[in-house]
Specification:
9 helices, alpha/beta, 4-stranded mixed β-sheet, binds S-adenosylmethionine
């Protein structure tokens, strides 16, 4: 099911890929994730309106270097990226506040006074808020926003523009398992045309103390973001999770080259989700895995891109090799 709403005299269109799907898939994910061992939930449920705001606060903490490093690379190279691609449209998966993409939009404005921006995000509130901000600042922009899930709804997403720049920033690819990452990249490639480009922002393996600190900021925004997931479940499924009886736990898992984020039960307890008639018994210390953030090497990410239909052409890293932006051409579809 797909619904389109036009706002601001047609300069902004909001497309809802499937309005009911969020709750349907939440129920299914709760059953499969919370009843299996170890228990887990997909990270997309972090992002209700409060979760999106908390993520924005995480991005501003001293410890979360990812946003600063990626923004610095975009500030330095946005003009070169836009001059290389000359896009008529920028498509962004998991757009969030669109603040980094704004650097590409500004750079595009040096070359022409029109551009289509197609952000896709699972959080409708952040899509509307950031689209409004961009339209206020760039009256020549037209925005076709897509509310949906980039893992499930890719085939419903529709881009009729030629020469598009597809973007996936914030190292969100790191949230996927290797198989999910391959499938996601193949889906992006299949959605794109042969003369489109793909810009990926990805975090790199580094000193473990830096990684551990990034997901355990001293002000507690990451802990609040993680615990907010329980409030999302309480609200959506009439649950009685007590956020004071769970604690945030995040650590770098060397063997799997990923940060794992968990919610750990502080005692033996039973939680009920009344809407789906589900009771979950937690042992003291038992955890729910809420997010993986895989860290790549320059070689591993290049290999993954090449094996999924892309040809990496320009690689940008800062002086300290913290983070990487990779601008790839789409390899011709066979
Ligand atoms: C880590 S944030 C990155 C935001 C932004 N791209 C940045 O770099 O700052 C992830 C974003 O992806 C969105 N998101 C997470 N899972 C998603 C999914 N399965 N489908 C669509 N959007 C998703 C979230 O709502 C959030 O805005």
């Amino acid at each position: 099911m797909q619904e389109a709403v036009k706002i601001d005299s047609g300069r902004f269109q909001l497309n809802r890929l499937s309005p009911e799907q969020h709750v349907d898939s939440l129920e299914e994910d709760v059953y499969t994730g919370l009843l299996s061992r170890p228990r887990s939930l997909p990270p997309k449920y972090f992002y209700d309106e409060r979760g999106s705001k908390l993520f924005d606060q995480i991005c501003q903490t001293d410890e979360y270097y990812l946003t600063r490093a990626e923004s610095a690379l975009l500030k330095k190279h946005a003009d070169e990226i836009v001059s290389t691609v000359r896009p008529t449209a920028i498509v962004e998966y998991g757009s969030g506040t669109s603040e980094k993409t704004e650097l590409l939009i500004q750079a595009a404005n040096q070359h022409y006074d029109w551009l289509h921006y197609l952000p896709l995000d699972v959080c409708e509130e952040i899509l509307i808020e950031s689209s409004r901000r961009l339209l206020d600042r760039y009256p020549w922009l037209s925005i076709d926003a897509w509310h949906g899930d980039f893992l499930q709804d890719m085939q419903l997403f529709n881009n009729s523009h030629t020469r598009s720049l597809y973007t996936f920033l914030g190292s969100s690819l790191g949230n996927f398992s290797y198989d999910e990452a391959s499938q996601f990249l193949r889906d992006v490639r299949n959605t794109a045309n042969d003369d489109d480009w793909f810009l990926l922002g990805i975090d790199l393996v580094k000193d473990h103390s830096i990684l551990n600190a990034a997901y355990n900021d001293i002000e507690g925004y990451t802990a609040a973001f993680n615990l907010n997931l329980l409030d999302v479940l309480n609200q959506a499924l009439d649950g009685d999770f007590n956020t004071e009886k769970f604690e945030h736990h995040a650590f770098f898992d060397i063997d799997n080259s990923r940060v794992e984020m968990r919610l750990r039960s502080c005692c033996r307890q039973t939680v009920t989700l009344r809407d789906i008639d589900l009771k979950i018994e937690f042992e003291d210390g038992e955890h729910i895995t809420t997010e993986y953030s895989r860290k790549y090497t320059a070689d591993s990410i290049r290999q993954l891109l090449t094996s999924t239909g892309f040809s990496p052409e320009h690689v940008y890293t800062g002086d300290n090799n913290e983070f990487m932006l990779i601008l790839s051409r789409c390899l011709k579809k066979r």
